[in-house]
Amino acid sequence: MAMYRSLKAKGLNVRISPTPRELSVCCGVSLLVLEEDIDFIREVASEENLSYISIEGLNNTFDNTRHRYG
Q1: For residue 29, is pLDDT > 60?
Q2: Cα–Cα distance between 30 and 46 in angstroms, integer?
Q3: DSSP characters for 46-61?
Q4: Which range of residues forms the domain containing residue 28?
């Protein structure tokens, strides 16, 4: 995943995750990011020509014991 590697290299807190059911009923892969990093992530994606489908938010708390991915 090019975007994951690029964002990690820039020191961002990013995790690979199955797409939450709240966002899509289909199987997929998402990146979990901090809300305050979204503008910077859009800039990086534009500068490095990285593509993504969308950036969506969820109104729930990250549970480190439940959400263990990548």
Answers
A1: yes
A2: 18
A3: HHTT---S-----SS-
A4: 2-47
pTM of the model: 0.73
| Average pLDDT value over all residues in the chain | 83
* Percent of the chain at pLDDT exceeding 90: 41
Per the domain annotation, does 13 fall within a domain?
Answer: yes
Q: pLDDT per residue over 35-56, tens digit each? A: 899 999 999 999 999 998 888 8
Q: At what angle do helices 2-9 and 38-47 cross, to 10 degrees?
A: 120
Cβ-contact 11, 64 below 8 angstroms: no
Closest-CA residue to 14 (of 34, 29, 28)? 34
Whether 52 is covered by a domain: the verdict is no
Q: How many domains does the chain have?
A: 1
